[in-house]
Design a protein that fits this description.
The chain is mainly β. This is Beta-L-arabinobiosidase.
């Protein structure tokens, strides 16, 4: 269904086609000669759509107003083929719309005229022939007609404007036909009338609630009063089961004999603004206020001086592809206004040559990415003039573009009613897919976006009529995409409304709860102090799904400029109870472990409801709630906001009052939006300083950089950056649906940067090491992904610009390997040119690079994959936090921890969750088992926990300069050292290191349950190292002197402990820098008869390899610390 010259789905390599947006005036050239018959006179009924599924827009026209012809676009810019269906009526037609209504893969055509029997012309599967079927029910005087899914069943119905009575509705029966269905929608007038005067109809989601509403332009010849309901425009809001008239509330109830209207987002705020073509008064431009109302902005727009015309057709399109919607009006004059993206317009100078068009249909008619015009000429109404139709091709410019066609699966096949949101250069554009527009015409079903100089699209989101949401990131420019519903992750969208006034409330710092509020102060409110704000929603999200994203959308009630730092969590409950007026009813509720910080920018415009008033992602908070055992779709979630500062938002009470009607409808109230997927999501992060690094062109590797230069670093051009992600919880053979790397900005980067991403071709990659060419010597995956990186404009950002393209080809190759296993590690390698500076692990674990993988599994049920976590050694406590991971393809498996062996009882805080706390009754070694049971298969894994005594714990640091010392292999002793080389030190050979701890307050004969020495790494070292630790056999170890052999000559105890430490990253003092349990060594000392509490103990370290620790002389705060627990 798409030209083979363009990919069916997006290519991941982005090429910047131009570096500057075109500024030339838009123009058109007459290429009617490309049509086989250049004498066709359609008048004003016409359409553009891809009629044969080849990905190119074709022309549907009615010669002398009644002979149906389809002109098929051939080679781009070449001649058209033709199909003549024949006469559809004995009289001229007034309305036409196009879409695939029977789901056979080819588009069908509705036509209707003056009481001549409206018909649907069904296309064969190839779109090359048509069979005509009259619609049932009474005849009518058709004006505009639309295909739209009025009842939301996935099939396109028909709305046909009737000039002489209430408009007709026809329900698609899903069997290749339509039934007359007047009860589908009440479009009658109030006060009552004969309901005539229906001229133009357009389906649009004016209120952004996810379903299409209907605007009807009304004009009744002979009716002279502007208050007569037969000439007052109607706005019917779709409330699901009913359609409610809100024209008066919205401000769109004009009575000036309107013929047509169009809606589009003119200012990038996500709301659909409107232009209404009036005949008895000037036409008007109306800004959508985002609260269900509109404001007349015609005077400020620059349009007013040029609206002295009788308009018939109107359309918003981006004709010059600069990223701003333009406005084309035709009637007794033709005028094209170029938009500025801020509700301003400039009249284009002579874009068209030749006669004045009365009508037009729009689409890309030479396949070059720009909107062309098929023009018709008539005598104001539907009588064709003597002037033949003209094909006017856009002369184009160097601006970039993207075109998007849709294929529905659950929704109707053409995606009519879908909303497409595109972000490029940090600017939002919105398109809606419609069939039948303006006054009796139909435009292309392919949505076109102008991009100006933007080199790629940051995000592309499709919100389907079914509620499914598909999203693509980092999309190539200058291409046509055909997106299949659900193809990018089957993300479902749930929008939850606050149901009544007792579901949002404020609690003062004294615990007083207010449930009736015009606004919600987030959170500072004068005498009430820093409040707790609660919002309760009934959330239609099923259990056992993955939350992809979630946010609250507020509407600004005040102008707030001061800094605000807010924290959002939720009640830790299966089904949150109603908010009561009891003291502290909000703050006393249990809260989720997950919380999200939000520091909103200034709110400057009252009534604005935009991304500025939208919270940070609440994904983790909502995920924790729906993961609860008792969660079910329709249960309630209560979100709680605390913090400092103030942002004033409308409450549910104020929202209802402002829009003036609609049960349970509060357009200004905070709404909770949740995107979820039935696919699985695995996340991993760089978890240590030794898991990210840079390799220069020379092969030199460093793992200690405080940031990651992707990839040029000053004079070190073309580095390779390696990232090691631990415990990637994706099972072997899974289908990777989407994967990406997420970085955080460490430094601003604006220049060109093009990266290439690959992975090490291994299911168990080696740890990173500071060995020459450690990264480039690794075998790489055959799959690579090119990443043209957006500018990074603000330190701390971790948004779309810092997210890689889809890496699913790389992950798919990895999980398909024979050596891949569940919860294994993966190493990613980035190369290329240019510079973007990201946070490394050293910059903070929360900001280190992350890997996100969305995947699905098939082939029936299989045993769960289980990883009980790393073995645990406890010192000074008898409580352990278990950290297990499991995956089950059936979801909803039962989880159970049990004790396999051990000397005492084990109490689990909750044995039915993956990561509970376990408390051990006595010291010793325990084996715990995690069992995951999906009802058919079970999976198990064990973890060992070694529990030391739970007695007294002492922390004792090196206190004197002579108490940490090095002795060379020839006996020379150094007592003042900037660091401690454990144990290799160049010409000194393999040293003996002594550590003396004075004043150890352990009683003689005590039982040592745990003893460790904690070092702080002074340098990054990764070479294999094996150390042996022993203690001096003395009840009070003497000080280390400078004499030869002062350390090695000491008599040592019989016990020894071997330590093979993992690699060290500079500055780290963690588990890898901590010795194993030295209890046996210290037990020998304190059991000696000459030992007395408060005396000194000395440890001796020998071995091979090197780890470099801080010494007391080099850094007193980083000197070694002895931790001892005894009973």
């Amino acid at each position: 269904m798409i030209d083979s010259a363009f990919p069916l789905f997006l290519s991941l390599a982005v090429s910047a086609i131009s570096t500057a947006g075109a500024t030339a005036q838009v123009g058109f050239v007459d290429r009617t000669n490309l049509l086989q018959n250049t004498g066709v006179r359609s008048g004003f009924v016409m359409g553009v759509a891809d009629m044969n599924g080849d990905g190119r827009d074709d022309i549907v026209r009615l010669d002398i107003g009644r002979i149906l012809r389809v002109e098929y676009q051939g080679t781009p810019g070449g001649s058209f083929g033709t199909h003549v269906h024949g006469s559809v009526s004995s009289s001229r037609q007034w309305g036409l719309c196009i879409a695939d209504v029977d789901h056979n893969g080819a588009r069908d055509i509705f036509t209707g005229g003056y009481y001549d029997g409206a018909e649907v012309h069904f296309a064969n599967a190839s779109g090359t022939a048509y069979s005509s079927t009259p619609l049932p029910g009474p005849t009518l005087f058709v004006q505009t007609a639309n295909f739209a899914d009025i009842d939301g069943d996935g099939w396109l119905d028909i709305f046909a404007c009737h000039d002489d009575a209430e408009s007709h509705k026809y329900r698609n029966n899903g069997q290749g036909g339509f039934d007359f269905a007047p009860g589908m929608m009440d479009a009658s007038t109030t006060p009552a009338s004969d309901n005539s005067g229906n001229y133009g109809s357009l389906f649009t989601d004016y209120d952004g609630d996810g379903d299409v509403d209907l605007y009807i332009s009304k004009c009744r010849i002979g009716v002279n009063s502007s208050t007569d309901p037969r000439r007052i425009n109607k706005l019917l809001r779709n409330d699901g089961d009913t359609w409610t008239e809100v024209g008066g509330v919205s401000g769109l109830d004009f009575g000036q004999q309107s013929w047509a209207a169009d809606f589009g987002d003119l200012d990038g705020d996500g709301d659909m603004d409107a232009f209404i073509v009036n005949h008895y008064e000037p036409s008007v431009l109306m800004r959508n206020n985002g609260d269900g109302t509109f404001t007349d902005v015609t005077a400020a727009s620059g349009l007013a001086p040029h609206l002295d015309m009788v308009g018939i057709q109107v359309a918003f399109r981006d004709f010059d592809n600069d990223g701003n919607l333009d406005l084309l009006i035709a009637g007794d004059a033709q005028r094209l206004f170029l938009g500025d993206g801020a509700l301003g317009f400039t009249l284009a100078a002579n874009p068209f040559t030749g006669p004045t068009m009365e009508s037009f249909a729009l689409g890309d008619l030479n396949h070059d990415g720009f909107i062309d015009v098929y023009a018709g000429y008539a005598r104001i109404i539907n009588t064709p003039s003597t002037i033949p139709d003209r094909l006017l091709l856009n002369t184009a410019n160097s601006n970039n573009w993207l075109q998007v066609g849709l294929v529905g699966t659950t929704s109707n096949l053409d995606g009519v009613g879908a909303r497409i949101e595109l972000t490029a250069d940090d600017r939002l554009q919105v398109r809606e897919v419609r069939s039948g527009e303006s006054y009796g015409i139909s435009h292309s079903l392919t949505s076109g976006f102008g991009l100006g100089a933007a080199g790629f699209v940051e995000s592309l989101r499709v919100i389907w009529p079914s509620g499914v949401v598909d999203e693509l990131r980092n999309v190539n420019v200058n291409q046509r995409l055909e997106l299949v519903e659900g193809s990018t992750g089957v993300r479902n969208l749930s929008v939850a409304l606050i149901g009544d006034e007792f579901n949002d409330a404020e609690e003062s710092d004294q615990g007083v709860v207010w449930r009736r509020n015009r606004d919600l102060e987030l959170v500072e409110d004068g005498a009430r102090g820093d409040q707790v704000v609660g919002m309760r929603y009934a959330l239609d999200v099923p259990p056992d799904v993955t939350i992809v994203d979630a946010w609250i959308q507020f509407t600004a009630e005040g102008r707030d400029f001061d800094e605000a730092n807010l924290l959002i969590s939720a009640e830790a409950s299966d089904d949150a109870a109603l908010i009561k007026s009891f003291p502290f009813n909000l703050s006393l509720r249990p809260r989720t472990m997950a919380s999200v910080a939000w520091s909103p920018p200034s709110w400057t415009l009252i009534g604005r409801r935009s991304s500025i008033e939208r919270t940070s992602s609440l994904r983790a908070v909502i995920q924790e709630v729906i993961d609860r055992d008792g969660w079910n779709a329709g249960n309630h979630v209560l979100l709680l906001v605390t913090g400092t500062g103030r942002r004033s938002a409308y409450s549910s009470d104020a929202g209802l009052a402002l829009v003036g009607g609609g049960a349970g409808t509060h357009p200004n109230a905070p709404t909770l939006h949740v995107l979820y997927s039935d696919r699985h999501v695995a996340t991993s992060a760089v978890r240590s300083a030794l898991a990210d690094g840079e390799e220069r062109e020379s092969g030199y590797v460093t793992l200690s950089s405080p940031d990651l230069e992707l990839v040029d670093d000053g004079s070190n051009l073309g580095q390779v950056v390696a990232l090691r992600f631990e415990d990637v919880a994706v099972p072997p053979g899974a289908t990777i649906d989407r994967a990406y790397l997420q970085f955080t900005v460490d430094e601003i980067g604006l220049g060109t940067c093009a990266l290439s991403v690959a992975a090490e071709a291994s299911g168990s990659p080696a740890t990173l090491g500071e060995v020459s060419q450690n990264f480039t010597a690794r075998a790489q995956t055959a799959a690579t992904v090119e990443w043209p990186v957006l500018p990074w404009e603000r330190v701390g950002d971790a948004e779309f610009a810092q997210r890689s393209p889809d890496l699913s080809p790389i992950l798919q190759e990895l999980v398909g390997r024979s050596d891949w296993s569940f919860n294994t590690d993966a190493v990613f390698l980035l190369s290329g040119q240019g510079t973007r500076t990201a946070e490394a692990f050293e910059g903070g674990a929360a900001r280190s690079p992350r890997l996100v993988v969305e995947f699905s599994v098939g082939g029936g049920n299989s045993a769960p994959y289980v990883d009980a976590g790393e073995d645990i050694v406890l010192s000074g406590t008898n409580s352990a936090q278990l950290a297990a991971t499991y995956f089950d393809d059936q979801r909803g498996a039962d989880v159970l921890w049990s004790k396999v062996s051990g000397p005492g009882a084990v109490t689990f805080a909750d044995a039915t969750v993956a990561s509970p706390t376990a408390v051990f009754g006595t010291a010793g070694t325990y084996t715990l088992r995690l069992t995951v049971d999906d009802g058919t298969f079970t999976g198990t894994d064990d973890v060992t926990v070694t529990v030391g005594g739970v007695g007294t714990t002492i922390l004792l640091a090196i206190s004197g300069s002579a108490d940490d010392a090095e002795e060379s292999d020839v006996g020379s002793v150094w007592r003042s050292n900037d660091d401690l080389e454990l144990v290799a030190d160049g010409t000194r050979g393999h040293q003996t290191v002594g550590l003396r701890f004075t004043g150890l307050g352990v009683p003689q004969g005590a039982t040592i349950t745990s003893a460790t020495i904690q070092f702080t790494a002074d340098e990054t070292t990764t070479e294999p190292t094996s150390l042996v630790l022993r203690a001096q056999a003395s009840g009070d170890a003497p000080g280390i002197t400078g004499g030869t052999g002062s350390i090695s000559s000491r008599q040592l105890g019989a016990a020894s402990v071997t330590w093979q430490p993992a690699g060290w990253g500079a500055g780290i003092a963690g588990p890898d820098q901590r010795t194993p349990n030295l209890a046996a060594l210290l037990q020998e000392v304190v059991s000696r008869p000459d030992w007395t509490s408060g005396q000194a103990v000395l440890f001796v370290i020998t071995g091979t390899g090197q780890r470099v620790a801080r010494s007391i002389d080099g850094d007193p705060t980083g000197a070694a610390v002895l931790s001892v627990t005894y009973q």
